[in-house]
User: What shape does this take?
Amino acid sequence: MNYKDAKIKFLETWGTLGSQWGINKTIAQIHALLLISPQPLSTDQIMEELKISRGNANMSLRSLLDWQLTYKKAFPGDRKEYFIAEKDIWRWSHRIGKVRKQKELNPMLESLKELSAVKKGTTESEKEFEKQIKELKDFTQMLDQLGDKLLNSNKGELLIKIAKLVL
Assistant: This one.
């Protein structure tokens, strides 16, 4: 496979993966493009490379800036805005993990805590409900604690240790 085909495959794969994680495909593809670009890219360059509209490019770049996965770069004498990706995989994966934990895991845990405070039941259905909610809450709390430890470890040290134990 030549470089051009490999690049296209990477951009498509990253876009598909992003979609599976609930991220807009274009946002993921712009992120991928900026990750592999040795130089900052302008909005026009991104639009041309990915064959997308200016509106789509601007909205996607704004999202990447909000997540702090990309940064603006200015060049003296050039009025265009340029963008560069955070290249440190630990930094950007940490940011993604933190946001996803806040938006997905934390609300689920709060809901399960609230549901587990339901008055104790007497019927078989009520007891099964309580049992399943407790197991889900315990499991979610464990994931929450693990997530905190992973996100608070320096440069993924804990993840590396876990990987060495498992692999």
